[in-house]
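Example 3.2
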Amino acid sequence: MNSAETHRSYFSSFTINIIFVVLVIIGGGVIPLLSLQLNPTRYLPSLSISCFWQDAPVRVVEQEVTTVLEGVLSTVTGVSKISSSTYNQSCQITV
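Structure, written as C-alpha cells:
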C-alpha cells in the first residue's frame, strides 16, 4: 500500500477553491448591508445606569446610591454632563 493513498484529504483542491469563491461572493453581497456614515453624528457616547432597591424610599436611594455614584462618575476624565432621577425604589443616572 502506498503512503500517498493512506493520507488522502477529505476535500480536493477544486472543492476548496469552489468554497472560497462562494464565500467571496457571499461577502461581496453583504457589503451593501453595512452601516457606514460619511458624516458621523456629533453626539458623544453616553452611559445610562439604572438601579433598583426594593422597599427603599426616595431619600434612602438618593443618599446611598445616586449621590455616591454621581460622586464617583464625576471623577472620570472626559465626563462633561451627569443627570440623574431618583424615584421610590429606583434611580437612573445618565453620563
